[in-house]
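Worked example 3 (structure in, sequence out).
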């Protein structure tokens, strides 16, 4: 290979040789060993302050501001030290040891001008910040000139007898193709990274992290959230299961609706609908918006909750919570077991599963097992769960047996709520206490006056329940039928209304109405048994063979029910 001619000046009689790459590397290492302690000596106080702030507050803005100042001063000092060295000895300390010199390209006998020395040093320092990638150019350039040499119009030469012959064409092509591949890869990764950041910004991911740190978003959801799960879907499921309060779900839904292009706005509208049980018109509006432009699982669940369709399949936790609730109300206990088995494997639903199993056991007429379940739960359940289950057990037991005999669940409910404001509990829990006191003849209106007056629903139900109220018999029936026809009540209140109505029936029309409502659930349970017994007493009281026939047919259509003795005998 012919030695490259570095002589571009007609006035010079000297021929110079290219500095070998290995000598340059040795010079680079020596320069690091020299400049690092030198810069550290000048900036010792600044580095000391940076170290203190790092240990006290490594994530603070002050640390990053001081870090940036230290980095900038280090950059400037390295540039100035190298500039001064190039002007004085035409080399850095490492280059001087390796017998390398930096000379002007067009007048190699003269020293470097300040502009050349400073520009070369500045660009060299800048290349160092790029992790030395720019230095790789010495492996492909014919004269081993990197960007900082060409920009400053300088040569990097050796004073040794033997110089570098320049890169082989294979070496040149390899380095250039390597740099090209690296550039393309870096560009692709940059585009992907920017695209990811763009999507995160549109979906509010940065704001979400900020709100988490400020405890605005629900901490309970964060505690139960598993990798890859949607926050809003988890929050909706936990709310439907009674595991988080309304304020929790509201903050999650509001955030999703705030994010400009969040992909789960349909779930946020569904969450809003779940919270809007008291306002049927508003709830239906949210149900409708959950189906706007995105016919997915959120829309299907909205249709199910509106009673339009039956949700037969789904993958979200909310689907399984609603499925379990539906199966419990329908008395499909075998299916319920499978659904609860799935929820038991998910985080956050232990309480819901436990309460559902207890209710299913009692509804399936396994009274002894339910009593054992309840006694065990009163030891292990949380206070809120003990109140919830005691109220449910008390209310449903009183619907079957309204006598003066005390019921343990009702007594527990009294003790658990003693000294607490009843307005802090759901209305149906207060109604359980009222019904228990009424059955035992211990009802004192003054004890519940404030709570009843604060809720129109509770007030109406109490007026229907108490025999001494101003409502006539027909007015009681009309109110109960109106509630059942509206369909806006929760399943618990609807069952309560149906239980009460079955005790007030006096006409064939009302008799048939109750049977039509009862037939909506095909599977029988202990609550339905009580309704049929009430209807049987009415048929006996009216001594109507037609009503007996209607009742017998309805009972036979409800699987799992035994006929009342009077019907078995054909009375």
């Amino acid at each position: 290979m012919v030695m490259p001619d570095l002589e571009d000046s007609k006035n010079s009689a000297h021929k110079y040789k290219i500095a070998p790459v290995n000598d340059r590397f040795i010079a680079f290492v020596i320069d690091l060993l020299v400049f690092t302690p030198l810069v550290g000596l000048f900036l010792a106080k600044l580095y000391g302050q940076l170290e203190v702030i790092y240990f006290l507050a490594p994530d603070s803005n002050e640390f990053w501001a001081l870090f940036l100042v230290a980095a900038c001063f280090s950059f400037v000092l390295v540039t100035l030290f190298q500039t001064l060295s190039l002007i004085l000895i035409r080399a850095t300390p490492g280059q001087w040891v390796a017998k390398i010199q930096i000379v002007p390209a067009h007048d190699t006998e003269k020293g470097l001008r300040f502009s050349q020395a400073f520009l070369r040093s500045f660009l060299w320092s800048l290349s160092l910040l790029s992790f030395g990638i720019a230095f790789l150019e010495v492996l492909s350039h014919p004269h081993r000139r990197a960007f900082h040499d060409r920009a400053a119009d300088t040569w990097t030469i050796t004073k040794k007898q033997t110089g570098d012959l320049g890169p082989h064409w294979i070496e040149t092509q390899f380095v250039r193709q390597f740099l090209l591949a690296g550039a393309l890869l870096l560009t692709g990764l940059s585009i992907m990274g920017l695209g990811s950041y763009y999507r995160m910004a549109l979906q509010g991911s940065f704001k979400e992290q900020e709100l988490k740190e400020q405890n605005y978003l629900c901490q309970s959801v964060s505690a139960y959230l598993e990798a890859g799960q949607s926050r809003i879907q988890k929050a909706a499921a936990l709310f439907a299961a009674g595991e988080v309060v309304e304020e929790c779900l509201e903050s999650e839904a509001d955030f999703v609706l705030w994010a400009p292009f969040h992909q789960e706005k349909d779930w946020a509208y569904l969450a809003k609908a779940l919270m809007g049980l008291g306002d049927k018109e508003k709830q239906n509006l949210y149900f409708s918006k959950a189906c706007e432009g995105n016919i997915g699982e959120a829309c299907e669940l909205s249709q199910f909750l509106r009673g339009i369709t039956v949700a037969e399949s789904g993958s979200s936790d909310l689907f399984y919570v609603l499925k379990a609730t539906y199966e419990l109300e329908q008395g499909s206990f075998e299916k319920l077991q499978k659904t609860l088995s799935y929820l038991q494997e998910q985080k956050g639903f232990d309480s819901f599963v436990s309460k559902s199993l207890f209710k299913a056991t009692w509804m399936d007429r396994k009274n002894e097992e339910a009593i054992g379940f309840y006694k065990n739960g009163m030891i292990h359940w949380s206070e809120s769960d003990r109140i919830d289950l005691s109220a449910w057990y008390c209310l449903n037991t009183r619907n079957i047996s309204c006598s003066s005999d005390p019921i343990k669940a009702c007594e527990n409910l009294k003790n658990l709520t003693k000294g607490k404001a009843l307005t802090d509990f759901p209305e149906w829990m207060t109604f359980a206490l009222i019904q228990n006191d009424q059955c035992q003849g211990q009802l004192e209106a003054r004890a519940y006056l404030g709570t009843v007056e604060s809720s129109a629903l509770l007030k109406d139900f109490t007026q229907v329940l108490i025999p001494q109220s101003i409502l006539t018999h027909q007015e009681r029936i009309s109110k109960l039928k109106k509630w059942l026809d509206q369909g806006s009540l929760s399943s618990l209140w609807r069952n309560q209304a149906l239980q009460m109505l079955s005790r007030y029936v006096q006409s064939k029309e009302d008799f048939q109405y109750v049977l039509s409502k009862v037939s909506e659930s095909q599977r029988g349970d202990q609550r339905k048994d009580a309704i049929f017994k009430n209807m049987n007493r009415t048929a006996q009281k009216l001594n109507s063979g037609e009503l007996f026939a209607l009742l017998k047919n309805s009972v036979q259509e409800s699987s799992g029910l035994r006929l009342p003795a009077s019907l078995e005998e054909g009375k």
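Notes: The beta strands are 17-18, 100-104, 154-158. Confidence is low (pLDDT under 50) at residues 8-14.
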